[in-house]
TrEMBL record:
GO terms for biological process: fatty acid biosynthetic process. One of its GO terms (molecular function) is fatty acid synthase activity. Coiled coil: none annotated. Keywords: Phosphopantetheine, Phosphoprotein. This is Ketosynthase family 3 (KS3) domain-containing protein. The keyword Phosphoprotein applies.
Length: 702
């Protein structure tokens, strides 16, 4: 919706202040359009409702009259009818262009039961303004001014009231400090403001579905804001939708932040994002390369029935404000329907011991395939454990007895061939396991990374797969199947801690327990007389990914005559810096990466192969056009990476072997996380001294 309209002559006579020729408009405005409030709303006022006489009401500023009416609509009605007390927090500030959004964190921090905040803005005849806010557009050169009064009512509740529109998850405000000019935006400060709000909300950047931008439509402000959001939000699997209410309402200045917040509420409650009005051609200064983003030019469905949205607002004096909210869709095709508990078969939670699913009330394990729902409705508790026994773990992990009933069990394993597929041959072929003494057996050689992944399947069919209930599962994780294979759910043989050498023979066993027909998969080192003398015959491949490959996997060239050494050569681009990491056998879950992002120094250790470092890249700087040579060597789990160019020389990174490679951190209610120290004598013991506002606490992890 475009609410921009021509200035009404009821406000003032534009003949003396309007000049359509921009070059001649000295001391005048050359646009007569803006986001003006309708005159009947601006000038009409129900004085009797507020116990005023008409004469008194005429002396009140129109901004104050609008604020009274909007505030009354917030606070009056059933919402306060059941509240015993109300703390209405008056907020005043001087963060030009974002008054209302800056008020939100202060109101939340001082909120005892409920709070109301709002802001009003009107345009006066001496103000200058343009025709439209052309957010994200090539022709953006300034903003149109707007008016409006808006407010929100907030309350603390432990229930879900039917009238609730959304929930605040995180808020933050900060200041640019010293910058180029008073009005120049500062990208790093905007990034820190966004990150602080996400930390308070305890959500990841990838969880944010919608970004409501400040988006004034200026040549300088839009690229800086989009760049700041990109720096925080770029690592995601699904695109983020970006909009700006200023393209609809113009720039309401003091009311702009609140308008954006209310737009976020409406978008989440309808499950769609409206188009950015007047967006026809992308501003070339917006760098969106490799960034999963959609600048809405049409009505877009966000794809979920609930989600998070974030709104940013930046004042020209350097104050930055951010709020993140959550809401569910109550309109449209993704409208959330009430839960019919008679049709709900089971509510599952993770067992803390085996990470499998269990019924949240009875603790009974949920089988790989739930049985068909009976005519009696939802599943009921079918067994009671011994008195005083805990229900915190599932029935498979519980070793006690039952007073009543018995827990469910898995279905019998069909009579079929059990096959295995793993990283020892790049997941290229299934191999049949041998059945002997009531179990299935298979032997593999440990590869150069001392780490292998695999899963099982009946008759080489991924629809009848057997795999762990959690990604990267060990022997203690519950085994599911046969059922449709879930990507990433592999058994992981990790021999790096014990430094078991490459080529060691590993014996893999799979069987079904008689108790509850539980599936079991285990592995162990198979002793060989004289030690292992054979290596894997399969030649693994390695790929490089990063800015130098446009985020594509490009194969590295194996060095002839040397085992597991690979090279790649390219030239440094325009930016003078290239970033990269590696993958094994075209598998994203076998990434090789540095311990922290943009690792320029060889002191940063190498991590992997695993899926935990998708956002961490090695970095090399040099002159544009210089030849850059990369070399990767993997030998007995020791990874050596080198990068060479003329101006920077050669930088070499190494992995750390054994238990010393681990690095753990502890997080809690204190202000920041702490890196735990590894015990010098016992590498499986980690300690940290944590200090909060009241005391010092020692944490130990074994």
């Amino acid at each position: 919706t475009d609410t921009i309209r021509e200035l009404s002559s009821l406000r003032w006579d534009p003949a003396y202040l309007y000049e359509p020729d921009k070059d001649l408009a000295l001391g005048k405005y050359y646009s007569k359009h803006g986001g003006f409030v309708l005159e009947e709303h601006l000038m009409g006022f129900d004085a009797a409702f507020f116990g005023m006489s008409g004469k008194t009401a005429a002396l009140i500023d129109p901004l104050q009259r609008n604020s009274l009416e909007v505030g009354a609509s917030e606070l009056c009605g059933d919402r306060l009818g059941s509240q015993r007390t109300a703390a209405c927090v008056p907020i005043t500030n001087d963060a030009q262009f974002e008054h209302a959004l800056v008020s939100v964190p202060g109101a939340l921090s001082s909120l005892c039961l409920c709070s109301a905040i709002g802001e009003t803005e009107t345009v006066w005849p001496e103000d200058a303004f343009l025709e439209r806010c052309l957010t994200f557009d090539y022709s953006a050169d300034g903003f149109a001014r707007g008016e409006g009064t808006s407010g929100i009512f907030m309350s603390v509740t432990h229930k879900e009231p039917s009238e609730r529109l959304a929930m605040f998850c995180g808020t933050s405000i900060n200041q640019d400090g010293r910058s180029a000019t008073m009005t120049a935006p500062h990208g790093p400060s905007q990034q820190e403001c966004i990150r602080a709000s996400l930390r308070e909300a305890n959500v990841t950047p990838a969880d944010i579905r919608i970004a409501e931008l400040h988006g004034t439509g200026t040549a300088l402000g839009d690229p800086i804001e989009v760049g700041a959001l990109r720096a925080v939000m770029k690592h995601r699997d699904t695109p983020i939708f970006k909009t700006s209410a200023k393209s609809n309402l113009a720039h309401a200045e003091a009311n702009a932040g609140m308008a954006g917040l209310l737009k976020c509420v409406l978008m989440l409650r309808h499950g769609v994002t409206p188009p950015n009005v007047h967006f026809k051609s992308l501003n070339p200064h917006l760098d969106l390369t490799g960034y999963p983003v959609y600048l809405c030019d049409d009505m877009c469905e966000i794809g979920t029935n609930s989600g998070y949205a974030g709104v940013s607002s930046f004042g020209f004096g350097g104050t930055n404000a951010r709020a993140d909210i959550w809401a569910k869709a109550v309109h449209g095709p993704r409208k959330v329907q009430p839960v019919d508990f008679d049709k709900l078969q089971a509510v599952g939670v993770r067992c803390p011991t085996c990470l499998g699913w269990m019924d949240f009330r009875s603790g009974s394990m949920l089988p790989s395939e739930l049985p068909e729902q009976s005519a009696q409705g939802r599943e009921r508790a079918r067994c009671i454990r011994d008195e005083f026994d805990s229900y915190n773990s599932c029935s498979l992990c519980y070793k006690g007895s039952y007073q009543f009933g018995k827990p469910p069990s898995e279905g019998p394993l069909p009579q079929a061939r059990v096959c295995i597929k793993g990283t020892w041959d790049g997941f290229s072929n299934f191999e049949e396991m041998k059945f002997e003494a009531g179990a299935f057996h298979h032997h593999v050689r440990l590869g150069e990374t001392r780490m292998e992944r695999f899963y099982l399947a009946l008759e080489e069919n991924d629809e009848l797969a057997v795999f762990p209930s959690h990604t990267s599962g060990g022997m203690d994780v519950r085994v599911l199947g046969p059922r449709q294979f879930e990507a990433g759910h592999h058994f992981v043989i990790d021999c790096r801690d014990d430094q078991i050498p490459e080529g060691t023979l590993i014996h893999i066993t799979a069987w079904t327990e008689s108790r509850h027909l539980e599936r079991k998969v285990a592995w162990k080192v198979e002793p060989e007389e004289g030690g292992s003398t054979e290596l894997q015959a399969f030649q693994h491949s390695y790929q490089v990914i990063g800015s130098l490959t446009q985020a594509r996997m490009i194969p590295m060239k194996p060095v002839r005559g040397v085992r597991n050494v690979f090279e790649y050569s390219t030239r440094i681009g325009l930016a003078g810096q290239e970033t990269f990491q590696f993958a094994r056998d075209h598998d994203w879950s076998q990434g090789i990466y540095p311990a922290r992002d943009l690792a320029l120094s060889g002191k940063v250790p190498v991590r992997g192969p695993d899926h935990l470092g998708a956002g961490n890249f090695f970095a090399v700087r040099g002159q544009q056009g210089e030849r850059l040579a990369l070399r990767l060597e993997v030998s007995d789990a020791h990874v050596t990476i080198s990068a060479s160019c003329h101006s920077s020389g050669t930088v070499t990174w190494h992995s750390i072997e054994g238990r010393r490679r681990r690095r753990l951190s502890v997080a809690g209610t204190w202000a920041e996380g702490y890196v735990m120290k590894q015990d010098g004598k016992n590498p499986d013991r980690y300690t940290a001294q944590v200090t909060d506002a009241t005391s010092a606490v020692s944490c130990h992890l074994v």
